Amino acid sequence: MTGADFQVLDGGRIEVTAEFWPVLAASGLKQFSAVMALEGEMMRSVPGRSTVRVELRQPDGRPLRAYLKRYEPEYLKAGKRMLRRLGWQGAGDEAMREWNAILALRAAGFATAQAIALGQERRGGMVRRSFLLTAEIHRGVAAHDYARTLDAGRRRQFAREVGDLTRRFHRAGFAHRDLYLSHIFVVPAPAGGRELFLIDLQRLFRPRLFRRRWLVKDLAQLGYTAQLAGGSRTDLLRFYHAYVQKPGLAREDKRLLRRVARRIAALHARPPKYDVIWDRPGVRPPNV
Question: What is the pLDDT of residues 131-146, one digit of tens each?
Fold first, then answer.
């Protein structure tokens, strides 16, 4: 995109796509603090980071649902704050990273959420608070929920489609690092079929070193959540055949599948880092 595709507000604290500038104006959201203060349905919250489903107002008065990710100073531990102050690439602002990832994926032909606005507040030249606002994926259903509605035959076809998406994604040079089925949204097409959207892209990157390691991680995360959603061994093999685009399993494939299986087992053995919404009344946050 070019500079003409964006508007800058609040002294540079907000960057909004030109398409959605009228929405922010109609919603009275021209200030960084106003966006950060938006209230809505809490979808996820861990110390210093939250995701809220909000309702914006279009110029004609119609509502527009969106998702707001907010990052507060307590989200950064001391070590990460130091790395960010030093300009370490992996310690950059996650809102900005996901904003750039959305633009990169859409430019590469992948479906994902529409970026509405990015907000950043700096102190001493370093981003301390930020947000990302994205439009809701209309009629989107998380892939793990969608898979549970399918019979065995349709589930195997769906596994092939997810395998094809993952192959194209990896061949385009990307690694997700959080490629769980909950981060693939399914939108049924009116004439049949479906479109798959990739979401939660704040950790997406283009690995130059140890590339196989990151691809194995993505594959294991998909396999792990497929098993939780009731996927069978046959479903996983359908997925893998679509991923490598060949019917049989060579020695190299078997080695790769063993690596993936070990990572899947490790995911099953590992408890979730966060499994509740920490700012619900009566819930105390962990010591992190």
Answer: 999 999 999 999 999 9
Residue 137 near residue 185 (C-beta atoms within 8 A)? yes
Q: Closest Cα partner for 66 from 97, 98, 41? A: 41
With beta carbons less than 8 A apart as the criterion, state whether 67 and 163 touch.
no
**In this structure, are residues 23 and 61 in contact, taking their beta carbons and an 8 Å threshold?**
no
Q: What is the pLDDT of residues 212-253, one digit of tens each?
A: 999 999 999 999 999 999 999 999 999 999 999 988 889 999
Residue 230 lies in a domain: yes
Residue 199, token pair as written in the block: 């979401």
User: Does 58 share its domain with 155?
Assistant: no
Q: How far apart are the first and last CA of the chain?
A: 38
CA nearest neighbour of 143 among 113, 179, 169, 181? 181
| 73: containing domain | 3-135
Sign of CA dihedral 161, 167, 173, 175: positive
Q: 220 near 175, Cβ under 8 Å? A: no
Structure tokens at 235: 């479903």
The angle formed by the CA atoms of residues 97, 98 and 101, to the nearest 5 degrees, is: 90
Which residue type, as a one-letter code, is found at position 167?
R
Residues 213, 258: one domain?
yes
Count of all residues that appear for the chain in the document: 288
